[in-house]
Amino acid sequence: MTALKNEAFFDRLPDEVEIKNAEQLRTLVTAQMNADGSTTLSLALEDGKTQTATLMPALVASLLEVLRLVSSGRGFRMIPVGSKLTTQQAADLLNVSRPYLVKLLENDEMPFTKTGRHRRVKAEDLFAYKKKRDARRSEALDTLARTDAEAGLI
After folding, report:
1. Mean pLDDT over residues 68-73, rounded?
2. CA 91 to CA 97: how far, in whole Å?
3. CB neighbours of 148 closer than 8 A, spacing ≥ 6?
4. Quick one: pLDDT at residue 1?
């Protein structure tokens, strides 16, 4: 039998038992979802009593996203919006090299602060940049697809 793990999933992948457990919990939470997106759960306590908890829609969506990642066998890292990231952490999240990220910062593509000689990027600024970058990429792909369709290539 596998020993119980208590390490977070940011530096490892879930094992088979954790994947099945996450899928089971995801199914239970989804089955109890109300029309407004909230979920009401009844939890059995050790003394035999039950306690009801209602999870608001934003919390349900976040929980289901975490459970979806674990049940698909993927790890994840939670980053609070207000946190400051190193250039390596920011580069990893954008899936670019650290030198490329530094060029973005130096070209004022994204705000940053300096702590001594080290640059720090606010997570919210990184997410805003990523959203804008992804929108530009999507728009460019739409334009390419439209051009190909007009040319009869697809």
Report:
1. 94
2. 6
3. 154
4. 40
